[in-house]
Every structure is written in structure tokens, then in C-alpha cells.
# Entry
Amino acid sequence: MERRVRVRFAPSPTGALHMGGVRTALYNYLFAKKHGGDFLLRIEDTDQTRFVEGAESYIQEALKWCGIVPNEGQGYGGDLGPYKQSERKEQDLYRKYAEQLVTENKAYYAFDTPEELDKMREDLKKAGVAAPQYNSISRARMQNSISLSAEEVEKRMQAGEPYVIRIKMPRNEEIKFKDIIRGWVSVHTSNLDDKVLFKADGMPTYHLANIVDDHLMNISHVIRGEEWLPSAPLHIHLYEAFGWSDTMPEFAHLPLLLKPDGNGKLSKRDGDRLGFPVFPLEWKDPTSGEVSSGYREKGYFSSAFVNILAFLGWNPGTSQEIFSMDELVEAFSLERVGKAGSKYDPNKARWFNQQYLREKNNESLAEELLENHADIEELKGIDKTFLAEVCGMMKERATFLVDIPKEGDYFFAAPTEFDEKTTRKKWKEDSASLMTGWLTEFEAIAEPSSEIIETKFKLFLEKRELGIGRVLPLFRLLVTGKGMGPSMFQIAALLGKEETANRMKVGISTLG
# Structure
């Protein structure tokens, strides 16, 4: 019987969710939907020292904004919960698995103090060991249940001496597994250390909790970032040590997200320093009060943001670039995810947003502006039908929704300033007389639609034997104050005969 696809996104609540984390969630979601499976959200908060207040709710809000909605997990319910590791720890769930490995001689108790660990590493460095490890060789000289007698171990535990449980990595073995993206991966155990599985504070480490939870939650595929690839051999070994090889999930390690110049991983610290957000939503650090920008607050559509992330590591094998979520589900496959790091291109990101803006109908753009950007001065008291017309004229020139009222401010109020470059190049000694003549023609139009205004304007040029480049920029300058923009005939028709004529009169008087 074919195994049901079950995947999980398992972030740690240590701060804002990086866009690389959102991409991991997206790929898990697409894979689950493609195969009719389940997508779980699990909060991995085993490291309580790094817990950040508000991070968990931020993660859930970010996923919701992106449309990456789990059908099971923290905040969504399910029969295999709780889906938060600190709550699972309260059931003493992880300790018994760690103790099981100790009983089977696959793990051991270690009583070493931080000072003893530092000395071990220092001694190994002096002996010429480049990367000192607590491993199959050094463990014999340390304070643990392998080097100490059973009586001494019992005595220390009865005295309440702090201890951890470490995995007992075998010597001279090869751990081999097949990664869906990277192919076969092979690591010799001589290069692996005896990682801590269970900490002195009673919390499991990521390694133990991750494996136990994936097993108990029947996870079929682990799709995660490349940074976890070095941990994969230990995780494979843990599955084998527990006797869970037959139900071990398949692994797929995603490529890194790189900075635009390709020089290193795009990290949380890069933030606004590089001139673009690295978080889906704005994040205020509860400790420092520092605010980092988010894609939502910068004006990106969530669908555009998702489309951007989809292409950071995956390609559909076709020339199509704009995908709805349903289309992504249909097209997505892990086999088309590359191994090489993917450079983030902020210009391409803006292009994606621009495409989504252009595809939206004018009425929905107007509604969104009035609902989400009512604080913009130009929009106060504006008629929605009028605003929809403005959106229709401006959206081809806008990248973000707020560009429409800001760049098209002349739709909402007469200009008080006139573009300096256009004025200097186009406004000549006879310009006032010329535009007064066109004003007379314009005011004679009974019902000025854009088509009629354009026809009358061309007749005016013919009578004066003038080129369009001599007069149209002046018409635009007087009415909008700008040097460029959408069709002047449409602008004049929308503003109406009286408003357009009044602006021309004021402009002629001002520019002389």
C-alpha cells in the first residue's frame, strides 16, 4: 500500500520568519497538495534560551497572509498533537526515547561540566586536531557512563548531578542515504560527534525531538533547507537506532537563498541593509524595539510574494513565470528543484508585483486602496468609481498599489508645481498664446469624451501646422504638472471640462 504523503513545516520561534523559511513552508505545502496529502505546522521550541515573545503568532500570521494554510498542526488541530515541542515535553515524551537508547547501549549519560568540555577541546587543539569533537575517541577520557563505573554513575545521578544524554556514534561505519534533490549522500562516522540528545534542563535537543516527532506524526517526506544537510546522517542513524528504518521519511534538502550578488546566504541580518525586506511581514524586535520591514507593508501582493519564492530554487521547465497557487500545485515537483544556491533578485521581485497589479481589475484595486490605504491624503473622501478609473489609467505605470495615488496625485488635486525639466525644454515665449488657443478650442467641446478631445486636439494641430510633440507636453504640464503619464485625453475626460479648463488657465497664468 502506497504511503500517504505527510509533510511538516517546523520552525523555531526565535524571531521573525525569514523568507527562506517561507519558501520551505511553500514547497512543503505544494508537495502535499500535489499528492493529496497533509501539511502540518509544528513549533520546535526545544531551545528555550532562544525563545522570542510573539514569534509563534508571527509565524502563523505570515503563513496565513501567504495562503500557505496547514490542514493539521499548531493552531489547526489534529489527533497526533500537541504540535508544540515544549507541550510534548510536559508529557515526558522525549525522555523515554532517550533512555531507551541508553538502555540499548546506543547512547550514554555524560556529566561533563562546561569547563571540562572547554579543556577537552583545548587539549585536542594542542595535539593538532583541527576540529575537536566529543566522539568515539575522546569520550573515553571524559566524565560519562562509558568511562565511569556503573556505581559511580548511579552515585552521581542519586546526588542530582546535572547530566546530558549523548548519542553513541559507532566507529568506522558509513551512513548513506538518497536525497531527492541531491542524490546519494555518504558520510563516515569518524567525521561525526556524539551529539547531545537530551539536555540537563529536561528538554530534548532538536535532533531527538525532530526524529521522535516525525516518526510519531507519520511524516513521509522531510523537505527542509540545505543548512540541515550536515545533520541528516545523525538523523538517519537515529532512525536506525530506534528500529524505525522501514518508516523513515524521504529527505529533500533545498538550496540556499543567496544575496543578489551571489556572495553568501541571504540572512535575517541582511534585512533592510540591502534595500529590500527579508521578512514576509513587518517585525518589531521585542527586546531592542528595532523594526524590520516586511513584504506586506512594502506593498507586495501575497500572491506575487509566493510566486517570487516559488522560483527561488524551482523552475517549471517552461517559459511560464506567472502562476496562481493552484497552478503552482499542479506544476510543482521536487525533481525540478536545483542543488545550486538561488540568487534573490529584488528587481525581479518588483517585476512580479507589477504583473500581479496589472492583472487585477480596476474595481478591486480601488476597493483595496480604500480599505487598506485610507490614510493616504489623496484618497480621503474620494469616489470609488472615480478611483477605479484612475487605477485603470495608472496601473500599467505602477509597481505597487500605493504608487497609483502617489504618482497620480494630479487626479485628486490641481498641481501646485510644474515639472522643471519639461518647463525648461518645452515652455517657450509663444507657449502661453498657443495654449490659450487650445483652451478656447477645448472649452467649445460640448461633451468632452476622450475620443472627442483627441479628435479636436488633432484638428487644432492641423490648423496650426504643429507637431504633437510641440503641444501635447504643454497640455500635460498645465493639467498635471508632470512631464509624463497616461493618455492626456483620458485624463482630461475623467477630470471633466470645468476642472481641466481651470487648471489650464491657472497654469498659463503661472508659467506666463
Remarks:
- The mean pLDDT is 96.
- Residues 260 and 344 are 5 Å apart (CA to CA).
- The chain has 20 helices and 14 strands.
- Residues 19-34 form the longest helix (16 residues).
